[in-house]
Amino acid sequence: MLNRRKFLHLSALAAPLLAARRSFANSFDATVTPIVVSTWDSGMAVNAEAWKILSAGGRSLDAVEAGARQIEDTINCCVGLGGYPDRDGIVTLDSCIMDEHANCGAVAGIERIKHPVSVARKVMEMTPHVILVGNGAQQFAVENGFPLESRELSEDAKKAYANWLKKNEYKPVINIENQKEHGPFAPNFFEDGTANHDTMGLVAMDKRNDLSGAVTTSGMAFKVHGRVGDSPIIGAGLFVDNEVGAATSSGVGEEVIRICGTHLVVEFMRQGYAPEMACMKAVERIVKRDKAKAKTLQVGFLALNKKGQYGAYAIQKGFVFSVKSEKENIVHESKYLI
Ligand code: SD4
Question: Which residues in the chain come in under a pLDDT of 70?
Fold first, then answer.
């Protein structure tokens, strides 16, 4: 996996190339397919997994599920059972998945299950429902053969939680990139217990030009037990419209939910905006509501349209995303508003 330090080095050397590629990516006419785009630089490994399926002519739905499972298998802040716990010390996971027919499934606040994205897919395929939460979601997972994992926190999460408890500060912090100290590619874990990012959202288009997407996360670190963010909410953390495009998000979920963020991005694309502009207009919507508050938080949107054009926009500097197609295998820095 490309780590942040390596990427920083690479990006300094390759800055002009990145800029050229970005404008190329936003201006070509021929459809690029298959393609997969995902949030953060951890998306490189996720894309590689999805690419195995896409390049073999497989379905985008299978590709996004495989990609999400890759990161659920790693110990990674904000994703999977190795992520930060809530304020009661319990890791609860949120995930959703959506296909080209607007079939969708989600789980929220699920505990002790390693692959919530696959449970979300089962909700989609085996029930008439869209979202299962908490104990019910876990019960459904177990009934469908998912093993119950241990409650034990990962070593990093244990340390961060202990530090956070010392401060006794029940105020969740998220996606503040600590740029002054760490630069834009800050580590996932800070020893003082503040959380950084890494919710994984990915959208893909397969050889048949069909779009799908998935999101998986442990959500906002040290959240109130029972809190659900944008990630498992269709139209907030993920939206797919096979006529137009697909979008996903990362950042402070409450802000994304308030504007039905990814649905909004897709609707802007329907109006003719390119993916990057569509994401920018959604970010503007958040910032306009309360500029002072927006300065203290991060939200990033990432979108892909039916031509295989992609783009992202964030409130502030620091959001990066990964792209894999036959032409590219790269991490881009997102543009930002403030
Ligand atoms: C949430 N959107 O639970 C998620 C968190 C996130 O990078 O994106 N972290 O609000």
Answer: 1-29, 168-197
